[in-house]
Write a structure and sequence with these properties.
Length: about 550
């Protein structure tokens, strides 16, 4: 195998490989191009020295009569920061220009091939009744399709890729999205996917629609449908998947999607300075009201001040605290099913900026700032732990009027890992970002997972409201109750009695639900760090004017 140099203008037809490096070990030395072997690699690399996944990719290139193969470990000089910055900025274009991308989803590491598969089948004994001399076995092959009165079809190739190391690796999201044609080697079979659809080895065919975030074609489709909605929704869809992926180097989180951001900006005529560490300037302020997962590995912060300290000085620094890229797993970026058209801004974005690190305007950042003018006020002294959703690891703390569960002034959701206990507000500032038309019983309607809060969860065994729902004693399921009554269960009462109270009047149509972010002081006066998000539901706060004493001011969030 030999290297070939050329300009982008005379770009030959080539195949790109998307795979997992895996952990370095004795059986997986991870062949790389470095300054020490660059001259040698320019002459050639012996095929038998390649790890098995790369040997399999070379074999496919020969079968398809494609002469050139692009592999990151060989085509980027490892350990050279300048070369890495230049090539990582071009990564999206490299996969977008490839004739075909080989996706080695079934390979967990470079020393594990993806062409050698064990077929999933079941051997069934056979004995002919017509001719006793005929016997043996026949094999049922796992295909993922069941035909009968109804047809059940698995979502190929997704079901063949989900749960693989490749699908959990941060860099591979962009590699898949930017590829025009994909040859996917899954856990069970091979799939071909392009802009027109998918063809699987088992005969499954799917004509592709406009699945958000599935490929660069989906970005083009949503752009044609209307830039204002489609592009941002597609971007958020991608970030939700991206936030759940892992990185060997945490600082790679922005570079690993810089190619996608770069191409999107080019297609939509957006200047690079309007890309702010994973957020688009024109999508402010809507895009700063995002939720992050409340649980993570490691010891939780004991209190709000300790959590704020962690967020003030993250190590390593990835992005400003107002960017979803600064956090780990992102639970939601879409205001819990509230569309942009229903959202009214209650603040003014005075300025927003990031200072890039290196040469890639869509890559790593050194710092960033967001200046906002808005109503704001100090949070009351006590935050009461609220509902726990064991399924999505989604927790909230409640600000209550006179500690009454009947009047919840606001729901608070913290960024990062905070001890699951009642908390002192300890200097939290609540800043109002926007509002929407009041939705009745917002929390329960939006979650649609009430069954996750049950008595076998000790963290949920507290006084919990269930608006318009009651536990059916026959099967233990939640069923809709009389809408004229409000039913809740006192989980701490010895008799576990369900009480029935008159339902409160619905808020008038002009009432608003308010959305905002939680801030805590930084070391420098006038600067703050974002530590979470809050919602105040008109239905839950009743007729109380929680915001009457708030003043309009200006803050800078870092």
């Amino acid at each position: 195998m030999h290297t070939q140099h050329g300009s982008e203008g005379d770009l030959p037809k080539y195949i790109a490989l998307s795979y997992c490096w895996g952990e370095a070990r004795e059986t997986n030395p991870q062949l790389k191009t470095t300054h020490s072997n660059l001259a040698e690699h320019k002459i050639g690399v012996a095929e038998h020295n390649l790890p098995q996944a790369l040997q399999d990719a070379v074999r496919i290139c020969r079968m398809l009569s494609i002469r050139y193969l692009w592999v990151d470990c060989l085509c980027i000089i490892q350990g050279d920061k300048v070369d890495w910055e230049r090539e990582s900025a071009l990564m999206g274009r490299i996969y977008n220009n490839a004739f075909l991308t080989i996706i080695a989803a079934s390979s967990p590491a470079s020393d594990v091939g993806f062409l050698q598969r064990r077929r999933r089948d079941v051997a069934v004994k056979f004995q002919s009744k017509r001719d006793p001399s005929i016997s043996g076995h026949f094999h049922l092959v796992y295909s993922g399709k069941l035909h009968g009165r109804s047809t059940v079809t698995f979502g190929w190739p997704g079901d063949d890729v989900d749960g693989t190391p490749w699908n959990n690796r941060g860099w591979t999201l962009q590699e898949g999205i930017m590829s025009n044609r994909q040859l996917i080697f899954g856990k069970n079979m091979v799939h071909f996917q392009c802009e027109t659809g998918t063809q699987s080895e088992n005969g499954y065919t799917n004509i592709k629609g406009s699945t958000p975030g599935s490929s660069i074609q989906s970005f083009l489709y949503t752009r044609e449908q209307g830039f204002e909605v489609g592009m941002y929704e597609t971007w958020h869809f991608m970030l939700l998947s991206y936030g759940r992926r892992s990185f060997t180097v945490a600082e790679d989180k922005l570079p690993a999607i810089s190619g996608t951001a770069n191409l999107m900006a080019m297609l939509c005529n957006i200047p690079s300075e309007d890309y702010l560490a994973g957020i688009w300037r024109e999508d402010l302020p809507y895009s700063i009201i995002w939720w992050s997962e409340s649980w993570s590995d490691g010891e939780p912060a004991a209190n709000v001040s300790e959590l704020a300290d962690r967020l003030r000085c993250p190590n390593p620094y990835i992005a400003p605290s107002w960017s979803p890229i600064s956090q780990g797993i992102i639970t939601n970026l879409e205001l819990k099913e509230i569309s942009r058209s229903d959202f009214t801004s209650e603040c003014v974005i005075l300025n927003a900026w990031t200072a890039i690190r290196g040469s890639d305007p869509f890559g790593q950042v050194q710092y960033g700032g967001l200046q906002i003018q808005a109503k704001m006020g100090l949070a009351p002294s006590k935050l009461i732990r609220g509902h726990c959703d064991k399924t999505s690891r989604y927790r909230n703390w409640q600000i209550r009027a006179d500690d009454s569960i009947e009047r919840i002034l606001a729901y608070c959701f913290f960024a990062g890992h905070l001890k699951w206990d009642d908390q002192e507000a300890d200097g939290i500032i609540m800043l109002m970002v926007g509002s929407t038309v009041a939705a009745e019983d917002w929390l329960h309607k939006s979650w649609e997972k009430l069954e996750a809060r049950r008595e076998d969860c000790p963290e949920c065994n507290q006084n919990s409201r269930l608006h318009h729902y009651v536990l059916d004693g026959g099967n233990g399921h939640l069923v809709e109750s009389d809408p004229q009554h409000r039913i809740w269960r006192d989980a701490q009462a010895s008799d576990n009695v369900e009480r029935i109270d008159p339902a409160p009047e619905k808020p008038a149509a002009e009432k608003r639900d308010y959305w905002g972010i939680l801030l805590h002081k930084w070391q420098v006066s006038g600067k703050y760090v974002r530590i979470g998000v809050w919602l105040s539901s008109a239905y839950d706060r009743k007729d109380l004017d929680f915001f009457q004493d708030w003043k309009t001011g200006e803050v800078e969030i870092i």
